[in-house]
Amino acid sequence: MNDIFNTGTDTPVTPPAASAEDLIMGSFASEEPTVPVQPAPPPAPQPVPAAVTASQQPLIEFRGVYKVYDNGTHALSDVNLKIHKGEFVFVVGASGAGKSTFIKLLTHEESPNAGEIVVNGYRMSSIRRRDVPKLRRTMGIVFQDFRLIPSMTVFENVAFAMRVTGASTRSIRKRVSYALNIVGLGDKARNLPTELSGGEQQRVGLARALVNNPAMIIADEPTGNVDPNMSYEIVELLSEINRRGTTVIMVTHEHQLVRDFGRRVIMIEHGTVVADNGNGGAAR
Amino acid sequence: MKLSSIRYLIGEGFKNVWVHRFMSLASVGVLLACMVMMGVAILLSVNVDTALGSLQDQNAIVVFYSDEMTDEQAQIVTTTIADMDNVKDAVFISKAEGLERQKEVLGSDYAALLDYLEDDNPLPNAAQVTFEDLEQFDSTVLAIEKVQGVTHINEQRDIAAKLNSIRSMINNAGFWIVALLFVISVAIVANTIRITMFSRKREINIMKAVGATDSFIRVPFMIEGMLLGIISGAISTGLLYFIYKASTASIEKSFGMTVVPFSDFAIKMLLGFMLMGAVTGVIASLISMSKYLRHEGSEFNAIT
Q1: Domain end call among B113, B136, B155
Q2: B301, A164: Cβ pair inside 8 Å?
Q3: Angle at the Cα of A238 (from A234 to A240), degrees rounded to 5?
Q4: What is the C-alpha separation between A169 and B295, in angstroms, rounded?
Q5: Which chain A residue has the Cα nearest residue B297?
Q6: H or E element that contains A119
Q7: A8 touches chain B (CB under 8 A)
């Protein structure tokens, strides 16, 4: 498990990985192995040790995914890709290309019409309704419009995501401070979101996304409503989070940003993946 | 669900009521109106029912015996009737007693007129019979008629039937009024909760995005509905007390009727109304939530 809080934060108290996870992510950590996914037998030319196979199991896998909306829009056609643990992936494409659908399929807001999607061990074709919340607790979502609650303080906005998991008040206080320190807003905990700049608000969104210590961060145009130099700060922060082990998937259409950071890029056009420079890329 | 969550969610429910206090006030007001009307209907039917019940108790029939029977034989027949199904009581009235009763009815001024009849009493032996269940009035009367020695029965079938139908009519009306007002109350609370829900749509969407279960989202709204119901239930019982006190005082004065004292059902009514309020709130919140969670249950990105 990638715990960003255990690798060199400037906070003095750094609990050991196991205890921190048991404290907050107990349910999530224990559930993960209970939903094992056995992908179709991979074309393995030579025998590989079991441990290696397990670690190579992708965090996200799309196999022949099609999505057609009720109104007839073909949002995605035959999408095949793998994203491994620890990767940083940009998903780019013009608006209407299918990027939003891609995210909605990841979070199980939408189901594919054909093909299989596996996210963090959950098969989307057979996931039970009551398991959807568990799936979502394994991901931190960052929105273009921040989605902060204006009547709550910065602290409360971040704490909110932890309350949902049934965390205790004590661990909430602890973790929220960690998360706010990571995004550099430790001193703004008592402010209201409206008192912050756009870039700061998005950093609150980022803190909220990572407070539950998710396996992946999904950022949907996180820099869309932030001025350009702040955009770099946001992506820098995402890179930092990624360096500590969390997988990051960032949807954007800011090509300059993508070029400057030089990461894996998945390009979607008219519902198909037209380019992917990642080695885990298109299976076929 | 964990204890810390439950505490948090209950707090959120209370907060909902307070944050939308004008809406809460409005719905408590309408709920109060509904519950007071319900209460008036219940109190009316309880009183009418009790009054009619006591009237029915007085509704006895008189069975007359053949002149050929001796007093002893007539008494034996009376015990036979008393033992029959649905007969509450049968009281033997001898010829002499019958005459005494007639004198009482006529009053002291005219009673003397009957004195000369004492030697040759024309009245037959009789018995006053009361019934347990007036629904079976006809069949019981028929059965008594068949008893040896009974010559004829003086019955007020019409009055019995009328009392019965009035009683069931009032009970029916009471039931339907309560049922209708209950449905109205549910609709009102559901509407209030829907408004709270829409104003918290953003929050709900974020909750879904961070992995809140449906029940986690639902609980605060259920608490909100329950609270509105319980508050209304408690206040309406208090209001009913004053309404009842004021109206019965004048009724007792002008009609000389005794009413059922409020204390007889005060606790029952308070608990009943609070429970009903709570149930109303829960049903209402489930109605307004289920639609929302079903339609937009999995979405959180589409709405801004």
Answers
A1: B155
A2: no
A3: 115
A4: 32
A5: A109
A6: strand A114-119
A7: no
Report d(CA B168, CA B173) in Å as an integer: 8
Please check whether residues B185 and B297 belong to one and the same domain. yes
Residues B129 and B146 in one domain: yes
Distance, in angstroms, between B290 CA and closest chain A CA?
A: 14
Beta bridge partner(s), residue A219: A142, A250
Residue for token pair 């992946």: A216
Radius of gyration over every alpha carbon of chain B, rounded to an integer in angstroms: 32
Interface contact A132, partner B, CB < 8 A? yes
Chain B residues closer than 8 Å to A164 by CB: 207, 210-212, 216
Q: In chain B, which residues have their Cβ closer than 8 Å to the Cβ of A140? A: 210
Contact A212, A237 (CB under 8 A): no
Is B206 within 8 Å of A160 when comparing Cβ atoms?
yes
pLDDT string in tens for chain B (304-residue length): 677 788 888 888 888 888 888 888 888 998 898 889 888 888 888 888 777 777 666 667 888 888 888 888 888 888 888 888 888 888 888 888 887 877 777 777 777 777 777 777 778 888 888 877 777 777 888 888 888 888 888 776 677 677 778 878 888 888 898 899 889 888 888 888 888 888 788 888 888 888 888 888 888 888 988 998 999 999 999 999 998 888 888 777 776 667 788 887 888 889 998 998 899 889 988 888 877 776 554 555 544 3
CA distance B288 to A282: 44
Residues of A in contact with B211 (CB under 8 A): 133-137, 164-165, 212
| Same domain assignment for residues B46 and B174 | yes
Domain hosting residue B109, numbered range: 60-155
State the smallest CA–CA distance between residue B214 and chain A in angstroms.
Answer: 8
Q: Which of B5, B209, B298 sits opposite A141 (nearest CB)?
A: B209
Residues B33 and B173 in one domain: yes
- Nearest in space to A211 (alpha carbons), one of A135, A151, A157, A247: A157
- Interchain proximity A164–B210, CB inside 8 Å: yes
The predicted structure's pLDDT at residue B59: 65
Q: Are residues B299 and B246 in the same domain?
A: yes
Domain count, chain B: 2
Shared domain check, B295 and B226: yes
Give A130 to chain B, closest Cα distance, Å.
7
Q: Are residues B39 and B183 in the same domain?
A: yes
Nearest to B5 among A149, A163, A220 (CB): A163
Q: What is the CATH number of the domain that holds B127?
A: 3.30.70.3040
This prediction has a pTM of 0.66
Residue of chain B with shortest Cα separation from A169 = B4
- B68, two tokens: 């050929």
Indicate the residue of A108, A141, A166 with minimum beta-carbon distance to B4. Answer: A166
Nearest-CA distance from B194 to chain A in Å? Answer: 19
Render pLDDT for A31-75 as a digit per residue (tens, 0 to 9): 334 444 444 444 444 443 444 444 568 999 999 999 999 888 889
Boundary residue ending a domain (B89, B120, B155) = B155
Alpha-carbon distance of A169 to A156, in angstroms, equals: 12
d(CA B299, CA B277): 32
Residues B31 and B116 in one domain: no
Mutation target among A23, A131, A164, A220 for the B interface, most CBs of B within 10 A: A164
pLDDT at B259: 76
